[in-house]
Write a structure and sequence with these properties.
This protein has 2 domains: 448 residues, Amino acid/polyamine transporter I (Up-down Bundle); 74 residues, EF-hand (Recoverin, domain 1, Orthogonal Bundle), CATH 1.10.238.10. It has 22 helices and 2 strands. It has a two-stranded antiparallel ribbon. The two termini are 29 Å apart.
């Protein structure tokens, strides 16, 4: 360390204690980031949600996808900045825990876990809907719930076994699904099957706008995968450029595909075909879309591809959800057992099993519409917190020198304020589902933190606490900033500073422009005993009492 500058020294010491993924090989470029993000995004948003959205707002369902994308943009850009400063595995939970502290980290960690497991459960609902059509062709019969629960058992076992090459299959399956959907869309346009007059949105009254907002909140889960790549930021080359570029490019491509394909579906599928014989909205719109455009045989093919896609999505979803429990246990916020990995398969088997149990509970007790709303609601909360986190870190950076993003969000803070306002608006439109979901996450998270986590973690000063103090007690905020810098410079942990350490701390604080000689004089003046070092707390008490360093 002797060859490092004082500011470099302080910056290193101030970094969080947990290991980041700097040891991982950075091999993912911009194209890989886009592909991974799109693979995580395309799924139930096209194979299930269009019919649910149509049932809410009719022909204007495609507009709900556009509005949802606009709400996601600020959160995605904010998450890109956070990921470039903290390019480590863990994603949104890591950022929230590091900015707001362990209490809020526990609450939102559980919310994000719930969001991913609900999204996976929603994919299983789509899986069972398409399977019902295929099995009817071959004279077999199981109920949709039996099919969903049976597949849940299978994908849980696969996750526990740790089949390492499963994720390799996901991209080809998504590619096959996109080829099918884009092909059907082009056929519908060329053949003249689409009645474009049917896609005009109805926005004449305030209730129409409220309905559109509620539907936008419903379909926002379609974009949940767009920032998933940030969780593997440690493996991305040049993360300051490739992470935000890949996230925004995949969001633009995904939103365009959603809008065009959903609009074409609505223009092709007759109104009555969006509902079954009992009047319930269908959960397999792509099958009906394929039938209307290309006939029965292609509808069977579409259903088979949908089954593969939904299985792939649920498989990846339970994997992602279980990792939140694993990460929170690793951070001592949840019992140690959830961090334990299987001795043979090297997977967090208990975290996977608990996630699967909760998915089964959701499949049995919650209807399809509510599953999608809860999943979207938790995602909206996360996007809002990403925006708030960037605003906090920009303000508190002087006290938390580890925050050095290689990508800075443009239009700060206007973009973040828009993200906060638009996200909160969608939560309002969602109504009681958003409230119940948030309340459950906060209550359960609070109970777990005060009952377990608080007794197992080491307290630390968070950027949120610093940010708050800057407004309610600026003197205390400045005291903590100084104390943090001085202790960071105290490389031997003796609670006192030598001349070199003192100069390092003062340079990091940028509180003296008079140069090295002046700092030596300050040090000698403070070293009243002439023993070559000064006590940190005594020095700061003297400085803050008299209001200067001399």
């Amino acid at each position: 360390m002797a060859n490092r500058s004082p500011k470099d020294l302080v910056g290193i010491v101030l970094q969080p204690m947990e290991k980041v993924s700097d040891t991982l090989e950075r091999k993912l470029g911009l194209f890989s980031v886009v592909i991974i993000s799109l693979s995580a995004m395309i799924g139930s948003g096209l194979f299930v949600l269009p019919s649910l959205a149509y049932a809410e707002v009719g022909g204007g369902a495609w507009l709900a996808y556009v509005i949802a994308a606009l709400v996601v943009i600020p959160g995605a850009i904010s998450k890109s900045e956070l990921a470039s400063a903290m390019p480590t595995s863990g994603g949104s939970y890591v950022y929230i825990e590091r900015v707001f502290g362990p209490l809020f980290g526990t609450m939102m960690g559980l919310a994000l876990w719930a969001s991913f497991l609900l999204k996976a459960a929603f994919a299983l609902i789509g899986f069972s809907a398409y399977l019902m059509f295929v099995q009817a062709e071959y004279g077999e019969y199981v109920t949709s719930l039996e099919a969903a629960l049976g597949m849940l058992v299978i994908i849980s076992i696969v996750n526990i076994l740790g089949i390492k090459r499963v994720k390799i299959v996901q991209a080809p399956i998504v590619a096959m699904a996109l080829i099918l959907l884009i092909g059907l869309t082009i056929m519908a346009i060329i053949n003249g099957d689409a009645d474009w007059s049917r896609i005009e949105p109805t926005l004449e009254t305030s209730s129409d706008w409220i309905g559109m907002g509620e539907t936008a909140a419903l379909v926002l889960v379609s974009y949940a995968g767009v920032t998933k790549v940030a969780a593997i930021g440690g493996e991305v080359k040049d993360p300051g450029r490739n992470l935000p570029g890949g996230i925004l490019a995949s969001l633009a491509i995904g939103a365009t595909l959603y809008t065009i394909i959903v609009a074409t579906m609505i223009a092709v599928i007759p109104d009555a075909s969006f509902f079954d014989s009992s009047g319930h909205v269908i959960e397999d719109p792509v099958r009906v879309f394929a039938y209307e455009v290309a006939g029965h045989d292609v509808a069977i093919l579409a259903a088979i591809i949908a089954i593969l896609t939904m299985t792939s999505m649920s498989l990846a979803g339970i994997l992602a959800a279980s990792r939140y429990l694993f990460a929170m246990s690793r951070d001592d916020l949840l019992p140690e057992a959830l961090e334990d990995v299987h001795s043979r398969y090297e997977t967090p088997h208990l975290a996977i099993i608990l996630t699967a149990i909760m998915m089964a509970f959701a499949l049995i007790t919650i209807d399809v519409h509510a599953v999608a709303e809860y999943a979207s609601g938790f995602q909206i909360m996360a996007y809002v917190l990403m925006c708030i986190s960037v605003m906090i870190m920009r303000k508190a950076t002087s006290s938390h020198a580890w925050y050095q993003p290689s990508y800075s969000s443009p239009f700060h803070p206007i973009l973040q304020l828009f993200g906060i306002a638009s996200g909160c608006s969608l939560l309002y439109f969602m109504g009681s589902e958003a409230f119940y979901g948030a309340a459950t996450a906060f209550i359960v998270g609070g109970v777990l933190y005060f009952g377990y986590g608080k007794n197992h973690i080491n307290p630390k000063i968070t950027p949120w606490e610093t940010f708050r103090l800057m407004f309610v007690d600026p003197d205390e905020a400045e005291h903590r900033r100084r104390l943090t810098a001085f202790h960071a410079a105290d490389t031997h942990g003796q609670n006192h500073l030598t001349l070199h350490e003192f100069i390092s701390a003062m340079d990091a604080l940028e509180c003296c422009d008079e140069g090295h000689t002046a700092l030596r004089e300050y040090f000698h003046h403070a070293d009243v005993n002439g023993n070559g070092y000064i006590d940190i707390h005594e020095f700061l008490e003297t400085v803050e009492k008299h209001g200067s360093y001399d």
